[in-house]
Amino acid sequence: MTAQLDVLTVGYAEDRVAGTVVAIRDGDLVIVVDPGMVASRRLILDPLRDLGVAAGEVTDVVFSHHHPDHTLNAALFTNARFHDIQAIYHDDVWLDREYHGDVSHLSESVRLMRTPGHSAEDVSTVVETDRGLIVCTHLWWTKDGPAEDPFAPDREVLRESRAKVLDLRPALVVPGHGEPFTPTAGTVR
């Protein structure tokens, strides 16, 4: 079984900032990744509606990390469980996340992978789709980098996590603030 992944809105980081927001549908799960800053909440809600999904039907929200440009609109999803590197949160329940190595499964087709780099608490969402493996991550802001992430606390850790993602041979990488891209030999490490 494979999941369906749709980019709801493509982010940017220039004189203004917006995060790339993704929807993943896998069986009974409807997951939104990084519902952060956007010019209008309609840029998240309208594409979801076009997929036949109401905000109240979103079952899970994943935060790649806890910067506001990736979390600001989480409250749109009132019925969802929330996931980060550490735990699963729902209403007043906090469940520590279980990992097998660096991986924690949300379903057979969707897993979270520890990928520190942009921050020490980064997690990437790894999705098996009919188009191949897709990784939603903030290890890259856009396909072009930046090579030197200005927020990365440790450049070597960032490089190691980028290599770990590229070693998966993803068909696509969905970066934190740009269009999905197909990694090549020239992809910034």
What does it look like?
The protein is mainly beta. The chain has one domain: Metallo-beta-lactamase, Chain A. The chain has helices at about 40-50, 155-165, and strands at about 5-10, 10-15, 15-20, 20-25, 30-35, 60, 80-85, 85-90, 95, 105, 110-115, 125-130, 130-135, 170-175. Strand 2 (about 10-15) and strand 3 (about 15-20) form a beta hairpin. The longest helix is centred in the last third of the chain and has 13 residues, at about 155-165.
State the order of secondary-structure elements, H for helix, E for strand.
Answer: EEEEEHEEEEEEEEHE
Q: What's the name of the CATH homologous superfamily?
A: Ribonuclease Z/Hydroxyacylglutathione hydrolase-like
Instruction: Supply the CATH architecture.
Output: 4-Layer Sandwich
The chain-level structural class is mainly beta
Topology (SSEs and partners):
Blueprint: E1 4-9, E2 12-13, E3 17-18, E4 21-26, E5 29-33, H1 42-50, E6 60-62, E7 81-83, E8 87-90, E9 93-96, E10 103-105, E11 110-114, E12 123-129, E13 132-136, H2 155-167, E14 172-174
Parallel strand pairs: 5-6, 6-7, 13-14
Antiparallel strand pairs: 1-4, 2-3, 4-5, 7-8, 8-9, 10-11, 11-12, 12-13
What's a concise summary of this model?
By secondary structure, the protein is mainly β. 12% of the residues lie in helices and 31% in strands. It has a single domain (4-174), classed as 4-Layer Sandwich (Metallo-beta-lactamase, Chain A), CATH 3.60.15.10.
Task: Give descriptors for this structure.
189 residues; Metallo-beta-lactamase, Chain A; globular; 5-stranded mixed beta sheet; mainly beta; 12% helix
